[in-house]
Amino acid sequence: MEQIITAIPAKKSIALVAHDGKKAALSAWCEKHKSILAAHNLYGTGTTGHLIEKTTGLQVEKLLSGPMGGDQQLGAKIAEHEVNLLIFFWDPLASQPHDPDVKALLRLAAVWNIPVACNEATADMLIASQMMSEQIDRTIPDYHNYLANRLD
Hints:
Elements: E1 3-8, E2 13-18, H1 23-32, H2 34-37, E3 41-44, H3 46-56, E4 61-62, H4 70-79, E5 85-89, H5 99-111, E6 116-117, H6 120-128, E7 136-141, H7 143-150
Helix pairs in contact: 1-3, 4-5
């Protein structure tokens, strides 16, 4: 598939997700970076979003809980270019009943070429980047051109 260049805006739309064993760590991370996160649009799966709001006072658009469809909702927002950065503190040591949904979410983040942090160290590097407050270019699949050529 051909590729095109599009922009991730200076004001990012950030998805915040954490497995149960990592929710406290993500909430603490959000508190630590509250002043930076406040400048962006925040989305979260249900339980994680509620915890972050309660802990930090940040406004989070809450979707369903991950196992109830929230991971898939975030995936749809990535595919529709409504989310352009994913912070997902996943627990590699715990079995997850909704693992296929998690894999699909991470796959869509890769397909649509958005920055992803799956642990605190990577999230720290992303949030500290000067690019957090700048518009940046990314290469994505040219799906519209693909469709136009398939219909000919």
